[in-house]
Design a protein that fits this description.
It comes from Albidovulum sediminis. With about 110 residues, this protein is mainly alpha-helical. The protein is about 80% helix and about 0% strand.
């Protein structure tokens, strides 16, 4: 099998590359796309949470982290407490927003102390 010349040809002809299946490449691309979506949605949720928690002045990075962290916190904590906000994307959105608001309130209280 001939790949041509250059660094790409060496990489494509290497035994390590031959072991990579299309499913693995697709899973990697899906993971990256999922992470980008999580960051974008986290940014929107964090921004909305910062509008609710006025005066936090957290900044964009903190808002994104609060949105993503709030989503993870809500998806873990609310089912443990037996609280459901409905099914589907709207319930997940409300839960993530509530988690992000909680994180920003805690950050605001810690900064005051």
């Amino acid at each position: 099998m001939r790949y041509g010349t250059g660094l790409l040809a060496v990489l494509l002809a290497s035994p390590a590359f031959a072991q990579v299946s299309p499913e693995t490449v697709g899973a990697g691309i899906g993971f990256v796309a999922g992470m980008i979506m999580a960051i974008l949605i986290g940014a929107v949720i964090g921004w909305l949470a910062s509008l609710i928690v006025k005066g936090s002045g957290s900044g964009l990075l903190t808002d994104i982290l609060a949105g993503v962290g709030g989503s993870m916190l809500a998806s873990y904590l609310l089912p443990k407490l037996g609280i459901t906000l409905g099914g589907g994307w709207f319930g997940a959105f409300l839960a993530a927003l509530a988690g992000a608001v909680l994180i920003l309130v805690v950050l605001k209280l810690v900064r005051r102390a």
